[in-house]
Amino acid sequence: MAQSPGTRYNLARFDLVSIRLVVDCVQHGSLSAAAREAHLALAAASRRIKELEEAVGEPLFERHGRGVLPTAAGRVFARHAVSLLQSLEQMGTELADLRLGIAKHLRLCANTAAITQFLPPLLARYAGQAAQVRVDLEEQVSTGVVAALREGRADAGVFVEGVETAGLDCHLFRRDELVLVLPARHRLNGRGAIAFGETLGEDWISLSEGAALLQKLQEAAHAAGRPLRLRMQVRSFDAVCHLVASGLGIAVLPKNAALPIIGAMKLRWRALSDPWASRRLLVATRSGPLDPAVEDLVRFLAEPSQKAKAPGRKRQ
């Protein structure tokens, strides 16, 4: 069944019903469940999978008594199938929006700090003054934002300064302040600012790998010649604070984003005296000519004092 190297597949045989059937099989681990979801008879679904396997030249699934498991070829097929189906759904959404007078979709990728502290009111204002433009927002860690820009998956991105920005045009977006987040009763509670080095005997809760905040904590611990006792990593500020409230460790978070959660969970916070606790967030695009709508969005999002000094695009 295997195709020879360099074989070009007959894509006309990859109809959308069959492609979605493969994705459902992978998700459910069952051809019967996938057939029900596709409103197909089991025999018809089985025939479609077999035809796809013949077109690919490889088995897509291993059959066993409790269902199906994707082969290596099946996992590759499903990964690209999901991307294709999402693109088609996005195309349908944008075509429908054209009928409603929305002429442009812009893809904005941003890190958690930007979304929780700054972007919601900004994007609401932008929607009010640019009714023909819809901004699709995706949350990523800072390294993920930069990767999305470089790979063309985002038109603009907001992230914390410190990530490698070669090939990007960057502008100042906003500034924020990092603070220490502590349980209500903790030996480090106090009124004055504290040096990060004084906290390194504690267990730490942090965001997941790729977050600029985690990278900064690791760099600061290394500079202090002490290990960062990283106990748990999670994906959201809420989750970080829940773990701190449970006494599992301490954390550093952006002040404006953390204060409402700190108040709700009866936690404590303390300023950090280290210079790196004051951060810059950047808004960026790939270098080169820009769609005017993207340029307008970046100009709108750029920090107000920067816009006053230098309207339009400016390289940092």
Task: Describe the model.
- The chain has 316 residues and is an alpha/beta fold.
- It has three domains: 11-95, Winged helix-like DNA-binding domain superfamily/Winged helix DNA-binding domain (Arc Repressor Mutant, subunit A, Orthogonal Bundle), CATH 1.10.10; 100-174 and 280-309, D-Maltodextrin-Binding Protein, domain 2 (3-Layer(aba) Sandwich), CATH 3.40.190.10; 177-278, D-Maltodextrin-Binding Protein, domain 2 (3-Layer(aba) Sandwich).
- Helices cover 43% and strands 22% of the residues.
- It contains twelve helices and eleven strands.
- It has helices at residues 16-28, 31-37, 42-56, 72-99, 112-117, 119-129, 142-150, 212-223, 237-245, 255-265, 292-301, 304-309; strands spanning 61-64, 67-70, 104-110, 133-139, 156-160, 168-182, 204-207, 230-234, 251-254, 268-271, 278-286.
- Strands 3, 4, 5, 6, 9, 10 and 11 form a seven-stranded mixed beta sheet that branches.
- Helix 8 (212-223) links the parallel strand 7 (204-207) and strand 8 (230-234).
- Helix 1 (16-28) packs across helix 2.
- The radius of gyration is 25 Å and the shape is globular.
